[in-house]
Amino acid sequence: MTPKEFKKVSVILPNYNYAKYFSKRVDGILAQTYPIYELIILDDASTDSSLTVMKEKLLKLSNAYPDLKIKAKVNKENSGSVFRQWLKGIELAEGDYIWICELDDEVKPNFLETAMNGFKNPKTILSYTNSKIINDKNRPDLKSALRKPLNFVREDRPARDYTRDGREELSRALSVYNTIPNVSAVVFKKDPNIDFKKILNAASKFQVAGDWYFYSELLLNGRIAYFKKPLNIHRVHKSSVTEKTKKERLFQEIQFMHQKIKSDVKLSPNAKNKIKAQEKRLRKAWKIPEEISVETPDTMV
């Protein structure tokens, strides 16, 4: 591939108190076999040593990568939502494609090259790879809460690379559960026709399903590409938002997404049955009272 054939990829690196991962994460991003166009570092008022680590790393990068576009923005006050940081990064980005890298995750060197293959079809809006899940000790997390839901819809995400219309993906897979478990595994097109501000402001109202909402909105605008190799490494923390959130709220957000996608695309009888079965299973497993319900999509966001 010649330099002219490389697409402009802007990497957004949001940080909040992840100083210990910062240097290694940046090195992993810059070690990609597919070149990045710019690196956008966003600190959300960290209280650890992040700013010191960032300053030292940026000095080294300016010497080692003189042609790399680097932007660094530091909030004086915490924004209160990672989606506000995503939006800030997208608005700053000069590239045509966005890769949001959660700072505590890791990546294989050929991730970006693989994900960008999905955009050979000009109608692709989102391309992602499979992920490995690790815990705080860098060990495989075999008890992750993500695994059961993914198994629940595994037949709708084949054990092979594929590409399909985004609405079909919503109907077959994301209508049931968020089968894209980690944003670090995703590259998406910065389509000027998409109102990212509106979408991410709505996503910021969620406690756990904001990324699911974000993907569902993107997929209304194009195709999706999936690559089965786990080239992203997703770290799950015991103190994560998912673990702390009340099950009632999580259940409400899942119900909301079921209703939203049902209102956006036509669901097959198979998908409808899976949704019904999943909500029944979750109600029983989490002991959710029948009176716990969700607002309709047009009122919740």
Task: Give a short summary of the structure.
This protein has 301 residues and is of the alpha/beta class.
The second-level CATH architecture is Alpha-Beta Complex
Number of strands: 9
> Uncertain regions: pLDDT < 50 for 5+ in a row?
142-150, 240-244
Number of helices: 12
Average pLDDT, all residues: 89
DSSP helix fraction? 25-40%
Domain module count:
1
- Main sheet makeup: 9 strands, mixed
Structural class category:
alpha/beta
Structural overview:
This protein has a single domain (8-238), classed as Spore Coat Polysaccharide Biosynthesis Protein SpsA, Chain A (Alpha-Beta Complex), CATH 3.90.550. Helices cover 40% and strands 19% of the residues. The chain has helices at 19-30, 50-64, 82-92, 111-116, 147-152, 166-174, 196-203, 210-218, 241-244, 247-264, 269-286, 297-300, and strands spanning 9-15, 38-43, 69-74, 97-100, 106-107, 124-134, 162-165, 186-189, 223-235. Strands 1, 2, 3, 4, 5, 6, 7, 8 and 9 form a nine-stranded mixed beta sheet that branches. Strand 1, helix 1 and strand 2 form a beta-alpha-beta unit. Helix 10 packs antiparallel against helix 11.
